[in-house]
Amino acid sequence: MNAENKCSYCSQSKCCQYSTVEVETPRSIRDFDNLVWHVSHLNTHLFKDTDGWYLVFYAQCQHLEPNGNCGIYEKRPFICREHTNDHCEYDMDIKAGAELYFMDYEELDNYCAKRFKNWHKRFEKL
User: Looking at the record's lineage, which domain of life comes first (predicted)?
Assistant: First the structure.
């Protein structure tokens, strides 16, 4: 299957089920604490892949029609027009392709506790 016909096989319109925002690479306890706040929100995940760190917001595009087509195709934003499906979620789910993936507060909190020996003492300085 090639990129030209891949979309016709994707019955779930996977690329229209979420949006991502790149975030600066977290380094400090404070950076990670801010990300813990983000993933505390429903349907907000965090992942790291070879390109960097991203927040992913699972919310379907409001213009997606029941048949999986775009309801504003002729007026769709640039990001949709420039999207390539050479390597997309039809081939591999985001979670499967990520180096690190955090679905919620607990998963990221556990990771941070292992990464920073004084993670659970971060509020004592306040």
Answer: Bacteria
Residue 73 near residue 61, CB atoms below 8 Å? no
Which amino acid, 2?
A: N
pLDDT digits (tens, 9 = 90+) for 12-33: 788 888 999 999 999 999 999 9
Return the percent helix, strand and coil in the chain, to nearest 5: 35, 20, 45
List the structure tokens of 84: 């390539």
Distance CA 34, CA 31 (A): 5
What is the distance between the alpha carbons of residues 94 and 54, in angstroms, rounded to a whole number?
11
Q: Domain residues of the chain, as ranges?
A: 12-121
CA separation for the pair 119, 110 (Å, rounded): 10
Q: How much is the pTM?
A: 0.85
